[in-house]
């Protein structure tokens, strides 16, 4: 008798700290459905982003390659249509594939590429780039939010990076568009009158940056749309063919606008601030000027995407709203999991839960992401609940990252890993886990694409080391077991000199190992 192929239900939240779930020890936020996945599966306690920014890390998850290999090194660079994703690999072997929610495989805005100047002396060549793969044009403009707002009946060429069933939710808070736009307009004659800070229920003078009380009710929210579309997808699923379904919730990414009862579900007075909240980054005398840039930009414009400092009262309100958004997602996810069980698909379905990256959420008095690589930003939750005959309970200390996701799914499906995928199967206890490399272009590239602002980190066996391109004499070195809040930088500590040298060598060796092996020779000598 042929063994049934496993289904895969992949659940992703956006900008979720690893410890903002009950199953990771949070005593306040209520996430019973996510916690149930952990209770019946494996909770990974050392899982990291490969790049702590939305679009690049989603590319790493999809391709199994680091950013400098898949080419999506920052927001604004799509995944190449020539890339092979885990979804495409499964689709080619008979899996029904779907993605509902936030994709962010391509650009979500139509901002033109900046002018750039080639280096050196002399006249400009006819082609200013060293490669022609600009990833531009109509085939790469399929997720632009404004296009869907103007025409929600747009058609999408399929398959889309390996997915045959696609339902977009583009952007965040109550300002989402995509396929969701048509669904919303069918349910309300003027939904734009309910969305945005100008239509909010609270008073502008009472607001904290990135927060408003949305007039959009929960029954019209993108989270409800994702849950309904997921249930519809599952209802159409036959028993004979396997499926891959990705549910990608835009929450709890800022702006923080949970609707209805989720707005005041948590009392700001009950919020517990991180241990480092009262040690703002301005008190770190060792930070070079290049490392301070992200926070200067955020403090100057807290309504943008850069990290910014907040007061204690502001932080408590943001935390309460963040928790409300998380609990709302958990509630809607519960409906999907219940429907999976009602259809008798549960025991055939591998369930994976993750986040694309984290959020400072109060670390050093800061919110949002980008800048330094604190655990709150680069460490993410990762849960794996396997099917009935392979269920394993408990926790895993194996260190892993986003590039390990695609190989893990494909190995579990019974297939070898495509050439050029760089990650490893996180369930393979016989193969030692290599150090985790985290790449990051730095915040300055959003203003100047040629800025030398990269920050890279290596996480290995309870240590984190970070290097900043613009400050060659500076670095960070933390003993995460002795100093989980990362308050004592040991970079210049003589007692940590041997560990620093070990990490530098491990970093060099890891970079060597992560070379591009995807291309095959076309001729032999």
TrEMBL record:
This is Sulfatase. InterPro entries: Alkaline_phosphatase_core_sf, Sulfatase, Sulfatase_N. Residues 126-145 have a biased composition (Basic and acidic residues). Belongs to the sulfatase family. GO terms for molecular function: arylsulfatase activity. Residues 6-414 form the Sulfatase N-terminal domain. It holds the Pfam family Sulfatase. Residues 110-145 are annotated as: Disordered.
